[in-house]
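ESCALATION

Customer reports they have been waiting on this structure for their group meeting. Please prioritize. Original submission:
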Amino acid sequence: MQTNILEYLEASAPRFPEKVAFSNGQEDMTFRQVSGQARAIGSGLLALGGAREPVVVFMERHPRMVTAFFGVVYAGCFYVPIDGEMPAFRVEMIFRQLNPRFVICDERTREQARSLAPEGAQVLCYERLAESAADDAALAQVRREALDTDPIYIVFTSGSTGVPKGVAACHRSVLDYIEHLDEILGVTEDTVFGNQTPLYFDACLKELYSTIRCGCTTYLIPRQLFSFPVKLVEYLNACQINTVCWVVSALTMISGFKVLEKHIPEYFHTVAFGSEVFPIRQFRLWRAALPHARFINLYGPTEATGMSCWYEVDREFEEGDVLPIGRPFPNTGLLLLTEDDRPAAPGEPGEICLRGTCLTLGYYGDFQRTSEVFVQNPLNRAYPELIYRTGDIGKYNDRGELVFLTRKDNQIKHMGHRIELGEIEAVASAGEGVRGVCCLYEKEKKKLILCCEGECEASGLAQYLRSKLPSYMIPNRIISVDALPRTPNGKLDRRALAAQVIG
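Update from on-call: job pushed to the front of the queue and completed.
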């Protein structure tokens, strides 16, 4: 039985030594190079006294950054990815929470790492660390003492209080996740991934670990291309990328600007997406452009090691419909609980809760916030069993498929009615010329505000909404914006939009 993610790399490197494992389109690293340099980095950290502790990897988005992750794990430590484009105040808060002894940087991030790292931390240059002699005996000793419940990484999410939360995951949850994900996506050695997400999010796990497990290739797509959809598609075709796992907004940016009418990602055969609801109008454009591709909707929180549910689109959907998130991954338990902690009936909304090996270890150094959402299963009174309360609201449709409705904190009481802001957004997204929408609620004035991105007129959209929604769900204001704000991961940034619109 596999107990360590490095076993993937150790199996693939001898099989595909000269095959490109990771590339940014300009610089490649083969499996042999990744394996050799990762072992060298692990040995270098061990020589410095690194052991079972967080090691910050503060580098530019490059195959070397991925290799540094594996090197940290070889030392029996757990990596914490940080990007040079993250705001300095956020990096400082992360450093304060971790107080790491070691920070790995590259030439580009060295000065920034030195200025932000805590006093006493050793800032280590990747290039020098990768030249360390591999200490096979020391690495073997680390492996003998390792457990599959040992941490592998910490990724920081945005906390509701503004303080980042560091989610710590272990080998067992990642192994379980990747093996089931590869089966669902059909990943083989011929797969060519196009990575869209920053490497400091857990979303990149899909490409990084599937690559070393299956011996395939991942391209780290340059971020700037996501502002130029035609050039992005040209890049996808030049690299012969055939599989993507993107946030929805990255896909709708291409379809929303009508790029698919003339430029098609011709090698795509598997399109997985998640993190947001895919507007049906935009989804249908993709399906028409790629009629033979598989489209897979993924759902899951960082606290459950990435994606936990999946649905492969197997029928036609009309405008106003919502794509299901389907069923849980194998070995993942899903509970849909009402406010009084009973199982939701078919069609009844409930909070999505998860159980099983998918659960991470919790929030690093924060037992209080961990205990608030990693709780005892209320349906199990016989023995300790943790579940994770996602804060997401879903329901089962008339086909028995799970459908995401909204976030728990996006449920409001307006004009005496309980309203899901996501329901308004789902209807508005089908409006003529709409590329993206976000519905906000101004509590003090008790008003619904709909922000719309695209070539749409407020009066026309309002008329369309009046024909589709009850009066109490009609927005009081419709605001056209050039572009909805996005997080670095590409997801809609509701907090930033509310600050702009409401203040």
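Sent to customer with the following note: The longest strand covers residues 386-396.
Escalation resolved.
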